[in-house]
Amino acid sequence: MEITPGATAPEAVANGIDTLAAENFEALREDRIALVTTDGTTMLDGRRSIDVLAALDGASLYFIYEPDFSGETNPDGAADATTNVPIIALDSDESPTESQLESIDRVLVDLPDCGSRLTPMIALLGHVLEACAHAGKPVWVLDRPNPLDGFNVEGPSNDASIESLFSYQPLPLRHGLTLGELARLLNRERAIDADLRVVTMAGWQRAYLFENTGQRWVEPLPGISSQRAALLYPALGLFEETNISTGSGTSEPLSLFGAPWLDGARLATELHEANLAGLKAEPREFTPDPKEIVFGGQRCGGLRFTIDDVQAFSPPALALALVKALRRLYPQQWEYSKLEALLARPDLIEAIEDQAHELDDLWVPDPEFFEVRAKYLLY
């Protein structure tokens, strides 16, 4: 049944782990399990996935693989404070080792995602699939909602020939897939061929934004503390490798955008003329924490973004408007060439440099992606 955008689920959407719980976890009995998750990942009832799986009768939670995207995860050798299960930190370039996987029966992946190609979670998921395929171990992805919905696909795709932490697989900025669907796509399109099962959600529909799911927010990455922040991430996160602060080290990460050389009022005027739906941009000065790498302790001129219509707002449209405005207003100050690390598209960097009219035409998904994506949809 199709829903009207903005409609809310009649009951809270059940995650993959809640689906297993409804089956009394029968499929996991007598298994030795490794769990890829974050400390804050919970079931609908608020219990941590770690606690629930560690308490299963007849099953053993051997390892917790915890993503380490900020360098703040517990070091190897540590144990979870509640369950005493060993924690193994994984950054996006690491995989579970063969010796670790030898001691377990299956790997479960229960991770919240942010709905954007810019997350390092995609590369981590791919490396987990690769390691499990090599070791001959089944991997189950316990699915969760895409907080940006599973319907809208927007923004430029990365070049397949340029593989990096943020361009592990050709995807648009906003891909419209759940993590389980991404796992299916990666497993087949990259010929990983892991023994993969996606444990699906119950009650989720593709047009749901996170606020429609009835769920409590689980932070997918540091700083993405709400659906609004997740919506801004595909836009503002694109600038994090350039000399722009996106609010890290302030009380409003992924709401603020600025630099010491930036005039917020002038940039606000430019964005107003771009007529971006669902968004307010107001001039705001801010000073990131002195410990921050980007402009720490320096007063920044800039903007504070507020999304007043989550259905109408387009993150890639904001990103494009900012690229155009910064290139025009600050041709010497803004280090636009550093966008290449996240865009992974030399033709886009050239069009930005030349302020070419065809930039609008290039700022779209690869048409072939829609055909690829369609093969892996579960809902």
Q: What is the rounded Rg?
A: 21 Å
Biggest sheet details: 6 strands, parallel
Which shape, going by the Cα principal axes? globular
Average per-residue pLDDT, rounded, comes to 94
How many helices in DSSP terms?
A: 12
Strand content: 5-15%
Task: Give the spatial strand order of the biggest sheet.
Answer: 3-2-1-4-5-6
> What helical percentage do the residues reach?
25-40%
* Count of structural domains: 2
Give the total of beta strands.
9
Q: Output the CATH class name of the largest domain.
A: Alpha Beta
Termini Cα gap? 11 Å
CATH superfamily of the largest domain: Uncharacterised protein PF07075, DUF1343
Q: Helix-strand pattern, N to C?
A: HEHEEHEHEHEHEHEEHHHHH
The assigned structural class equals alpha/beta
Unreliable spans are: none
Key phrases:
globular; 379 residues; six-stranded parallel sheet; single chain; alpha/beta; Rossmann fold; Aspartate Aminotransferase, domain 1; 12% strand
List the helices and strands and how they pair.
Blueprint: H1 16-22, E1 32-37, H2 49-54, E2 60-67, E3 87-90, H3 98-102, E4 106-110, H4 121-135, E5 139-142, H5 179-189, E6 196-199, H6 227-236, E7 256-259, H7 264-274, E8 279-283, E9 301-307, H8 315-329, H9 340-343, H10 346-354, H11 359-362, H12 367-374
Parallel strand pairs: 1-2, 1-4, 2-3, 4-5, 5-6
Antiparallel strand pairs: 7-9, 8-9
Helix pairs in contact: 4-5, 6-8, 7-8
Walkthrough of the structure:
α4 crosses α5 and α6 (227-236) packs across α8. The protein starts with 15 loop residues before the first helix and ends in a 5-residue tail after the last helix. The strands form 2 sheets. It has a 6-stranded parallel β-sheet. It folds into 2 domains: 16-221, 3-Layer(aba) Sandwich (Rossmann fold), CATH 3.40.50; 227-344, Alpha-Beta Complex (Aspartate Aminotransferase, domain 1), CATH 3.90.1150.140. The mean pLDDT is 94. The protein has helices at 16-22, 49-54, 98-102, 121-135, 179-189, 227-236, 264-274, 315-329, 340-343, 346-354, 359-362, 367-374; strands spanning 32-37, 60-67, 87-90, 106-110, 139-142, 196-199, 256-259, 279-283, 301-307. It is built from 12 helices and 9 strands. The chain is globular. The chain is α/β, with parallel strands linked by helices and 379 residues long. The longest helix has 15 residues, at 121-135. α2 (49-54) links the parallel β1 (32-37) and β2.
